[in-house]
Structure formats: structure tokens, C-alpha cells
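Students often ask what a holo structure prediction actually looks like on paper. The answer is less mysterious than it sounds. You provide the chain, you provide the ligand, and the output is a string of C-alpha cells encoding the 3D arrangement of the protein together with uridine-diphosphate-N-acetylglucosamine.
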Amino acid sequence: MSHLMHYPDLMVCVLAAGKGKRMRSNLPKVLHPILGKAMLEHVLHTVEELQPKKIAVVTGDGSEQVRAYIGQPANLEWVIQDRQLGTGHAVRQCENVCTEVTDIMIVCGDTPLLRCETLDRLARHHQHSAAEVTFLSARLDDPFGYGRVLRDADGNIIGIVEERDATDEQKRIREVTSGIYCVKQKVLFDLLAQVGNRNAQGEYYLPDIVPLALQAGMNVQAVDMDDAGEIRGVNNRRQLAEAERVMQQRIIEDWQLAGVTIEQPETVRIEASVRIGMDTIVRAGSQLNGSTCIGDECCIGPYAVLENSWVDDGTRIEAFSHVVDASVGGSCRIGPFARLRPEAKLDDQVHIGNFVEVKKAVVGEGTKINHLTYIGDAVLGRHCNIGAGSITCNYDGANKHLTEIGDDVFVGSDTKLVAPVKVGSGATIGAGSIITRDVPSQGLTLSARPDQRHVPNWQRPTKRSS
Ligand code: UD1
Ligand code: MG
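The corresponding C-alpha cells follow.
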């Protein structure tokens, strides 16, 4: 952002009450996620950057769900629209909270691609031109579904017509309205009071304030958008996927410019709240989701999935690893085919190899767990080596129990540690042991092994011929 925005005389109304019928969903439309964040969240973050005096969000259908999801930011007012009688009707419900400001900006909760720079341009144009009504317009190759801007022979705006009310000739107009308006507070509610609902949908349309304002001799302005894609509204799942594609491209480009190498970017998913350090490489097919935060000089993937996880500098998360709600220290090597589950906390220089699962366990610096192992409900010290096929038997069928392992412990392959159990520092456990009691520090501990026999002159069976 080039400058810090601040609009103390502006109130923003976000319209989010619509049923979203075209989504065919039980989830309110504005809660459908785009790259891990609800559409409405994207819109609210964008609007907040303007630093307006207040934000009103109009909810109706599923309002409880919407409020529970968004929470209660300090400058946010919730407004209820009991019946969804149209966008104009929705704005009217805000009359009581739209006070002590000069201008009201109206933004739809279903246009997640909007940038704050664009809203800033709209607000500045509105103020500089001293207009009563200003709206964002754009030229779309496929204007289907949008309100079309009607102009006279001299190019003056004369009105807006919705898709469902448009004649075939009007449907060919490529200039559309975004549904985003800036209106002087002192005229908005008078204009809305005059809006009727005699149209194809029987709704009170917000865009109808445009002809009403013109009839009253007011100054109406359209601000043409640089990037028409920004106003794309999401009304169905096809448009949801398209909006996600556009946003993904933006996020990937931002990370590339911030010094992250992304191999085959079209195959990579990086959600909106993810953070990535410089000189990190994200390899093909990887997914970085939720609040994942990756340090500098890491290498992720190919085909790794990380969710809500922390990865410190210089760590490699190799192919096909799955890391969820975990934290990984610096210079670690994880995978290929590793699984880190919630509350896995690895210190620096830890090695986790193929087909190893770690859950709710702390693993000390430099410890290696390289093959085919399950570590759950455990605390492991530094510089241990856990042999292939070892298992912390943490669950007795009713409760989980803890395994505690000191520093410099060597656990032989195929050891079962039956929790609760403690292993002292420096201990060595012989391969194939079943450990049911605490293991002292130092020395060798091993459980009795089955006897080994040799049968000389034994013949392998041969296959009978039928
Ligand atoms: C709307 C505009 C259209 C514009 C397009 C841009 C109207 C009548 N049409 O059409 O000119 O080109 O957006 O995307 O304004 N909502 C309410 N209460 C209601 C109805 C809608 O809060 O009673 C909310 C919806 O939740 C949604 C927004 O208003 O977030 C827009 O409604 P939607 O039904 O998506 O309008 P569009 O047909 O997309
Ligand atoms: Mg819409």
C-alpha cells in the first residue's frame, strides 16, 4: 500500500444478508471460504484497511452463523435484515447506525477480490468531485448477471438495469456496476425511501438510487476500474472457484516478489493467512494451509501438505509429508512420507523419516526417528536415535499414557515402549524389546528374547504338481 488510508467521516455498509440461493448450500454464501478465509472475512479485511469510522454488516439468512464466525471487532456494528427484500432494502436497515458521518460506502459481501486501493480511489473520486452518488463500474467481456450501466447518446449516465430486467439490447452492454457505491449520508436514505420494487425480482434494488439521484439533479459519477476482475461477484460455485483461482495467482505473485521460489506455481496452493520466509522453495503440488508459517531457506515438497504449522529456518519437508498443527524447529529433515499430527513439537536438527507418525510429542534437538515408527504422548530428549519400527504404546483402550525418554538414548529397532514408562538418559535398549517398566540411565536394557533354534538338514517344501 502506497499510503496509509484513513477515512474518519466514512461509514462502510457490507451487505451480507442474501440467501445465496445460487450457491445451493446450507452454509450462508458469505461464509464460503476462498483460500482458507470466508468471503466476508476477505471483504472485511479490505474494508478495514480504509480505516473508516465504522463498519456495519447486514446479515439475515444464517446471521447467527455469520456472527459466530466473524466475532466482534471493535468498530463493527451488526444490522439485521429480517426479510431479504433486496440490496436497497438491506441498506435501509442501516439508517440508525449510519450517523455522524459524511459518506456511506456500500460494499457487497460476495466480492472478495476487491482491493482497498480501489475503494480508496472510489472514496477519493467521490470526495473530489463533490458527487452525491459515485459507483465503481467496469467493462466485462462476459457481463452476464451484472447490472448494466445505461448511458445516453452523449455518454451521460441515465440509469442501471439488472440482468433480469434488461432487454436483449441492454444485455449486450458490457459496462456493468460493481454493486459498490459511495453516497452522501444526507441524501442516501431519502433516495432509498423512493426506491420501489416493481421489477422482475420484486426487490428493492440499491442501483435504483442512480436514476432517482439524476432526476433530482444530483451529481452522479462512475469510477472505471483498472482491473475489471476485482469486482467479480460470487453467486455460484463456479464463480467461487474462479475467484479462488484469481486470488491464488495474486498471493503466489506476492510471495514470488518477496523472495520465495515456487516451482510449477499452477500446482501449488498457498492460503491467504500463510507466511513464508525468503529463499524458501515451495515445490510442485504442495499445499500450505491455514496459519502455516515457514521460515527462511526452507524447502517444502514436492506434494507436501502443511496446515496451521510452524516451520523454522533451513528445514526440509520432503515429498508427500503431511504436517498439521505441528511445530518444527530449524534445520530439520522431515519425510519423505512423514506425518506430524497436532502438538508434535520438534526442536532444531531433528530427523523424521519415512512412515513415521508423531503426535502430541516433544522431540529434543538432534534426535533421529528415521523409519516406520509411532511416537505419541511422549517427551524425547536430545540426540536420541529411535530404531525402525519402534512404537510408544500410549493407549490402554481407555486412557492415554506418557512415555518419557532422556537425552542420548538409543532405542533398538522394533521396541515397544508400554506407557506410562520412563527411559533414563544414556540408556540403550536392545532391539525387539518390550519395555513395561522404567529403564535406568546408561547401560543396556532388553527384554527376554524368544529362543532361537537351528534345524539342520531341513528341507523347504516343494510345490506339488497337480
Ligand atoms: C448485485 C447488483 C448488481 C451488481 C452485482 C455485482 C443489485 C440489485 N444488483 O447483483 O447491480 O452488478 O451485485 O456483484 O444490487 N443482499 C442483502 N440483502 C438482500 C439482497 C442481497 O444483504 O435482500 C446482499 C447479498 O448477501 C450479497 C449482496 O447483497 O452479498 C449482493 O446481492 P446479490 O443477490 O448477490 O446481487 P447480484 O445479483 O450479484
Ligand atoms: Mg452477487
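The chain has two domains: 7-231, 237-455.
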